[in-house]
Structures are given as C-alpha cells and as structure tokens.
Amino acid sequence: MVSIIRKLKKRISGIRVLIPPYKKLHNLKKEHTIKKVLKEINYLNSLSEEEIRNFQNRKLIEFINYAHDHCKYYKKIISDNNVDISDLSGFQNIPMLTKAIIKGNTQNLISDEYGIAHLAKKNTGGSTGNPLELFCTTQAGLLDYGFHFYQYKKMGYQEGDIILGAAAFTVPKALRDNNVFWLEMGKREPFGDTKLSILYLTEANVKYYVQKLLELKPAILRGYPSLFDSMAQYIIKNEINIDFKIKGISLTSEMCSRNQKINIEKAFSSKVLFEYGHTEVCVLCHTSGADDIYKSYPSYGYVEVLNDDGTETKVGEVGNIVVTGFLNRGMPFIRYKTEDLGRLAYKNGGIAHFSEIIGRSQDFIVAKDKSKISISALTSWQHLNAFAHIAKWQIVQEEPGVITISIIKGENYSIEDETEIKEKIQKITDVDIIFSYVTDIPRTKGGKHLFMIQKIT
After folding, report:
1. In sequence order, what E strands does 378-444 have?
2. How far apart are CA 33 and CA 138, in angstroms?
3. What's the CA gap between 12 and 10, in Å, rounded?
4. Region of poorest pLDDT, from 7-16, 81-90, 336-345
C-alpha cells in the first residue's frame, strides 16, 4: 500500500495532478477542523466575560488533569507540589516550565497516548538566542489553522481567495536561477498558498517578488514585515498600480516599525493587522482593524502576565508572558515561560490583551556587499538540527561581512553543529563567521537576553 501511495506523485506543467489518498484525507480533516474552530470562536463571542472565563477555566482544569494522567513530568511535579487538580486553587503552585526544563525532560513531557515517534518535530527560539526542540500533534497544527482563518475571515476572506505568505525557507537553485524565489504550497494554506522566501530578497531582485504579487492578485498578505516593506517601497518608488483589492495584511515574526506600517498600507491600500504567536502552539494573539491591541483567544490557551517575583502584572505595566496551550496534547506545555514581555492592557482570568509585545527583534546581519538579511530569517526559520545541542547563543556584528557567534554548548554539541550553522548561514549571505564558546552570555539591564547585538550604525 505504501509503495502504491509513493507512486502517486504530483505532476506539474499542466499535466493532471494525482493526489495521494492520505493527502485527500488530510485535507478533509483540515477543513472539518477549521470549521469546528470557527464555530467555537463565534460561540465564545456571544458569551459574557464571566461565561468566557468559566469556559476557559474548565478547559484549563481538563488539560492539567490530562497532563497529570499521561505525562511522567507533570505527574511528578503536581504530586511534589501538592497541587489539587480538581480546581484551580493551586494552579500557580505548578512550577513554571522553562526551555532548560524542557531540554532536560523531553521524554517525560511526551504523552503516553502518542509517543515521540508519532509526533511532528519542531524547532523554535533561534531569534531569542535560546533554541528549543519540541514535538507536536498533527491535530494541534490543524486547530491552529482554524484560528488563522478566523483572522482572515475578519479581513473579508472568502473561499477561493489567494493568501500570499512571506517566510524564510530554501528555494531550489534551479528555480532561483530563473528568478523564482517562492514556492507554491497548495490551496487553503493559512501561511500562504504561495510563499515568498525572505532569504533571497535584495534590492536587485525585489521586482520579481512584486511581479509575482501582481500575477497572483492575492486577497491576503501574511508574514514578515521587512519583506512586505521592501516590496512596498519598490511599488511606491515605481508608482505601480495595484489593480485588485487586497483585503487584509497580517504581519508576524518581526516587530514592525511605524514607517514600515505606513509604507505597507500605502502601497497595498489595505489595513495592517498584527499577530503574536509561537511555534510552541501555546498562545496566539491578533489585533483588529479598530486598534493595535493584541487579543488572545480563550480557547487557544491560558495566558498569565507576571512580574519577575511571580506576582500578577497590573494593567498598563510590562510583565513576563507565561502560557498554557490547549491544542497540543502530545507534549503539553503548562505555565510555559515564553521569554517574551508584554504591556498588559486587559485581563480576564487567562485572557490577556496587550498594547505592546516586547522582546521580538527585527535585527539584520550586514553582508560584505552591505546588503541586509533578517536575523530571524537566518536562525528561527532555518530549522537547524544544532538547536537541540545549544544552551544559548548570541550574534555580535561590528563590521560588514563579519559576525561573531558566541555559544554556550549544550549536551551533545559537536563540530558537526558548528559546521551546520556555518554552512546554512553562508549559503544565504556572504559573511565570515567567528565562533566563540563561552560559559555565560550577559543580559541587559532590563533582564533580557539579546540574541543580536548590531554595532554597525
């Protein structure tokens, strides 16, 4: 059966496409899950604040009980800390989950209902300097899709509309040699039916990115602000007319400056909305057209905003974002410390709104030819195997074309990891790399670990 499925390969250039049976089943499940999520969000929107809080508390209790029953790690810490899992009275007695704890307890965090071999491996944290390897169920990913499509529907998305994404990924050289810097992902893909790669964007080839946009006529733009800003500047400079309606723009992964937002909205004649989320599938916030307030989804996860001493942050103040995700039962994260900060605007139980998300950077490495490339594109989205073997790292640049990477080695770090990092970065941009192995990376006065220190002004 497997050999038959493998033979059902997709064909291109106008030849009929044969879709493997498992792909058809996956698409059906995806559509069913998206509809289920949309129905639940619309139901919650009809409830009062108290009813929403009670709904979320029930989900939290259920999730904690599940983790206790199926994960060795939670069974132990809940017992060791005398937490009553029948209610939430002792919820804050559960120790916060950090990346260091996850790295040391990966197997014990995996649910016995799944097993690590049946979960998807993900990498995250490259742009914060504290990389992490984690595992996720397919169902969690499908549920996450539903929340993204809810945001698109608020923008006016209808079935059949094209979503143009922007992210960091490798495009085959044969395509790049023909000025193709994107990949076709399929229909109804929340992160882009077609995805533009930021890895190859330059002043010389931005015109091809714009040409692709004009050809596709997308209804939704989604992804890196820096990529869409570069396209916007080209469109404005060359007085290019967008003769179709772009219904909405969802920006994520990087901070967006005021000037970038102005450029993007002007060039594409559409409203910019913002997203805050993680590969860890624990928290997702979207802004609305009315303001730039990030609002979390009650059914996605439970959000705490805490001071350094563990007390609750007051509205108007900046606190640590700590989250419990409801979607991923394969590797549950309870009270996970994201290492991000947020300025709290509203709080209702585990529902939080933020006027500002702090701790995400839009730094760039300057290559030998003075071109710039997003640091998050080089790290967060490269899916380096070395992430599993690095405790922390930091990049410092003092002159064009040269970077120093300071690394605190984790368990099993080897010369193969150094080689992988060097090869993948130099494959994308022309820089010399100096590796420095250290035992400590100092934090800022505000307590944050800076992944990128850019000294070129």
Report:
1. 390-399, 402-409, 432-437
2. 11
3. 7
4. 7-16
